[in-house]
Specification:
Structural class: alpha+beta
Largest sheet: 5 strands, antiparallel
Number of strands: 9
Helix content: 25-40%
Number of helices: 5
Shape: globular
Strand content: 25-35%
Order of helices and strands: EEEHEEEHEHEEHH
Distance between the termini: 25 Å
Length: about 200
C-alpha cells in the first residue's frame, strides 16, 4: 500500500498552488480495488486492524462516511485500484497523539490512482464534490505576507496547525506545508525539553 510522501517545509513561490487546511491527526490509508472495494487499512507506516484503539476506529468511519460513494465514483472513473488518504482526529488530537475518549472523525485529503499517481488538486476537488475534504484556503501564488499570516493564525478557515499547499508541475504533484507558530509553541511545550522528539514531530 502506497505510503504518503513526506511534505517539505520549504515554501515555493510563483506556482499556482491550492492551499488546504492542515488537519491535525493521524494519516490513515485505505486501499480500494474494483473487485474488493475497500479492503486494507493502515497508518502512515503499518497496517491497522479494526480492533486497534483508537486508530482502528477509522475503518468503520471510512466505510460509513465515504465507502459507498467513493466506490461508485472510482468505478465511474474506470479505476482498477486506488489508495485513499484520510486524516483521523478528534477534538483533543495533537501531533499524532489522541484521547481515546474523543469522538473521532475522518476526512479524505488525497487519492492516488493505480499507474497514474496522486490526483492533481483541481481534479481532486472535482472528484470529491459534495464529500468532506479539508477546506480550500487559497488558490494562486503565495507570498511572504500569506506565509506570515498563516504563521500568526490570522487567516480564516485554518483550524490550528496550518496549511498544505499542492501544485501540479511536470506531470507530478508537489507539496509543502506552512504551520502556525502557535502549533510549534504547543509542540515545544508538549516535548518538555526533548529536542530530538520536537524535531521528529514538527
Amino acid at each position: 500500500m502506497k505510503t504518503y510522501p513526506t511534505i517539505s517545509s520549504k515554501p515555493i513561490f510563483n506556482q499556482n498552488v491550492f492551499a488546504f487546511d492542515k488537519l491535525d491527526g493521524s494519516n490513515i490509508r485505505a486501499e480500494w480495488s474494483r473487485k474488493r472495494g475497500f479492503y486494507k487499512y493502515g497508518s502512515r507506516r503499518r497496517l491497522v486492524g479494526a480492533d486497534e484503539r483508537p486508530l482502528g476506529l477509522s475503518i468503520n468511519l471510512i466505510n460509513d462516511l465515504y465507502g459507498d460513494e467513493l466506490s461508485k465514483r472510482l468505478l465511474n472513473e474506470r479505476v482498477d485500484s486506488a489508495v485513499c488518504y484520510f486524516e483521523f482526529s478528534g477534538p483533543n488530537s495533537f501531533a499524532g497523539v489522541h484521547d481515546e475518549n474523543d469522538n473521532f472523525d475522518v476526512v479524505l485529503f488525497d487519492v492516488s490512482l493505480y499507474k497514474k499517481g496522486f490526483m492533481p488538486p483541481k481534479d481532486f476537488i472535482k472528484f470529491t464534490n459534495g464529500l468532506s475534504i479539508p477546506k480550500l484556503i487559497h488558490r494562486g501564488n503565495i507570498n511572504d505576507e500569506f506565509i506570515s499570516n498563516i504563521r500568526a493564525g490570522q487567516i480564516d478557515g485554518v483550524t490550528f496547525e496550518g496549511v498544505v499547499c499542492k501544485y501540479f508541475h511536470k506531470n507530478q504533484i508537489h507539496m509543502f506545508k506552512i504551520k502556525s507558530q502557535a502549533w510549534f509553541d504547543k509542540l515545544r511545550e508538549r516535548c518538555d525539553g526533548n529536542d530530538e522528539l520536537y524535531e521528529q514531530l514538527k
